[in-house]
């Protein structure tokens, strides 16, 4: 069978579902209500941001939350609220989005890039243990691709060394670890509402935490150094305006009512892809991390055999109408980070992932016909030869 890249007929001609999906009636109604009210800003007297924060905190199993303009700012504010700053180090995984590290730099601290587990690609507790120094102030596990990191051993390490834990839950809305929601398992957790995420307002983020004093410091950081309940022009500490708008919150609040159904659809697609991949021995799905009780499947990672030409695979799959994503380069290979002082630990597992892992994006997981098309295209491409 001739590959599409060589002039053959593509496996799939049908467009994939768009993301974000069209507004549902509840979103349209609430957004219209906010627009017509004129109360668009978070400090103008509207209630939608507050309702969103309350609902997300409760869903995360904690009492407190703060909505912010994006998750990068959320990670920064969480670190600030936990007292992390100049002279401190924060351990982050090597296989993650660059914002996990740049948020640390924004807080004035040094990112320490540690390796991931070679099987599930989440932050390795063993690598964290080896990376801890006298300057370490926090650990930032990332709930990669919608599955939870190994929170119990990471929290144990943090407790033993007196470290804070900030969960980067940007990709993991609705995921659970040992039946406990992510985001509420460390000292603070941060979600993203950027355009590609499982819930989106184009941009946005939300910080959750269980401790009242941490919440007050995070809130102050996000509200120009004001004291919660204090004077409008009182600024006892340094802070910034990092707030989410009522319009963005109106897009997000109704989404919570359908989030679980969408997670179920993505999980069903991932299970179907794993079954279909029986015909493609060169491709496997990394195992879910131990302790995963609900994977929100923001995306599906696929590992290809080391002998596969990954660049040809990506190009040929796109030609077949089934585009895959190349995924992350290891953070330790980014000169911009090391130029800012990032400390890089040995990261062979992350480097191997960068050579052998590709992604199926979230919108593709929302199509019931997707699994068969993905497996058929993989089988076709991997049986063909580059020209």
From TrEMBL:
<protein>
    <submittedName>
        <fullName>LegC family aminotransferase</fullName>
    </submittedName>
</protein>
<comment type="similarity">
    <text>Belongs to the DegT/DnrJ/EryC1 family.</text>
</comment>
<keyword id="KW-0808">Transferase</keyword>
<keyword id="KW-0663">Pyridoxal phosphate</keyword>
<feature type="region of interest" description="Disordered">
    <location>
        <begin position="1"/>
        <end position="23"/>
    </location>
</feature>
<dbReference type="Pfam" id="PF01041">
    <property type="entry name" value="DegT_DnrJ_EryC1"/>
</dbReference>
<dbReference type="InterPro" id="IPR015422">
    <property type="entry name" value="PyrdxlP-dep_Trfase_small"/>
</dbReference>
<dbReference type="GO" id="GO:0008483">
    <property type="term" value="F:transaminase activity"/>
</dbReference>
<dbReference type="InterPro" id="IPR000653">
    <property type="entry name" value="DegT/StrS_aminotransferase"/>
</dbReference>
<keyword id="KW-0032">Aminotransferase</keyword>
<dbReference type="InterPro" id="IPR015421">
    <property type="entry name" value="PyrdxlP-dep_Trfase_major"/>
</dbReference>
<dbReference type="InterPro" id="IPR015424">
    <property type="entry name" value="PyrdxlP-dep_Trfase"/>
</dbReference>
């Amino acid at each position: 069978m001739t590959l599409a890249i060589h002039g053959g007929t593509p496996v799939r001609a049908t467009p994939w579902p768009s993301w974000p999906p069209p507004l549902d009636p509840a979103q349209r109604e609430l957004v219209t209500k906010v627009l017509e009210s004129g109360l668009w800003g978070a400090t103008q007297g509207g209630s939608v941001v507050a309702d969103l924060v309350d609902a997300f905190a409760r869903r995360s199993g904690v009492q407190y939350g703060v909505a912010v303009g994006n998750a990068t700012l959320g990670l920064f504010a969480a670190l600030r609220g936990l007292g992390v700053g100049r002279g401190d180090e924060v351990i982050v995984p090597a296989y993650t989005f660059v914002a996990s590290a740049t948020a640390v730099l924004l807080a004035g601290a040094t990112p320490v890039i540690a390796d991931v587990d070679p099987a599930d690609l989440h932050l390795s507790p063993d690598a964290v243990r080896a990376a801890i120094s006298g300057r370490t102030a926090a650990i930032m596990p990332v709930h990669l691709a919608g599955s939870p990191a190994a929170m119990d051993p990471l929290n144990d390490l943090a407790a033993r060394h007196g470290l804070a834990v900030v969960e980067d839950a940007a990709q993991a809305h609705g995921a659970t670890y040992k039946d406990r929601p992510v985001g509420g398992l460390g000292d603070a957790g941060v979600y993203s509402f950027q355009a590609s995420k499982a819930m989106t307002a184009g941009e946005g983020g939300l910080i959750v935490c269980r401790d009242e004093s941490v919440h007050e410091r995070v809130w102050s950081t996000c509200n120009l150094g004001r004291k919660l309940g204090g004077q409008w022009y009182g600024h006892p500490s340094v802070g910034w305006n990092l707030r989410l708008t009522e319009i963005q919150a109106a897009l997000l609040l109704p989404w919570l009512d359908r989030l679980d159904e969408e997670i179920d659809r993505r999980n069903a697609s991932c299970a179907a892809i794993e079954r279909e991949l029986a015909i493609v021995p060169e491709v496997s799905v990394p195992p879910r991390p131990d302790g995963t009780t609900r994977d929100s499947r923001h995306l599906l990672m696929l590992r290809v055999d080391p002998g596969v030409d990954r660049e040809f695979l990506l190009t040929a799959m796109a030609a077949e109408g089934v585009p895959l994503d190349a995924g992350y380069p290891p953070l330790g290979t980014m000169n911009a980070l090391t130029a800012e002082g990032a400390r890089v630990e040995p990261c062979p597992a992350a480097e191997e992932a960068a050579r052998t892992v590709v992604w199926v994006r979230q919108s593709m997981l929302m199509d019931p016909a997707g699994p068969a098309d993905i497996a058929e295209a993989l089988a076709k491409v991997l049986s063909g030869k580059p020209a």
